[in-house]
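Lab notebook page, bench 4
Experiment: in silico fold of construct C2
Operator: M.H.
Input chain length: 112 residues
Purpose: comparison with the prior construct
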Amino acid sequence: MIGRTLDEAGVPDEVTIPYVAVKEAVFPFSKLPNVDTVLGPEMRSTGEVMGIADSFGMAFAKAQIAADGALPTEGAIFVTVNDHDKPTVLPIVRRFHELGFRITATTVPPAI
């Protein structure tokens, strides 16, 4: 719009952001009692919120609170992650297990 490329305008290729942001869809379930909450293709969110913090966990919690979603303190979690991210997610899953959550996950394919 200013007649220059991003390089000419001095915009860096990568920007380091000092926080984590988590965006969450807001669905109208609390406003529609006795409605089936299974999402179908016709279901639309009524907006979105964002949580910002210096860690993913806190940003996620803030987004859930803003969307009127209570965070569970018990139950089970389902984990499915691409191979590249498995080393990163393992400590997170272990922590959920330590907190008493049951873990269900996709199986690891055999090594080729």
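Observations: The first helix runs from residue 56 to 66. Helices lie at 56-66, 86-98.
Next step: discuss at group meeting.
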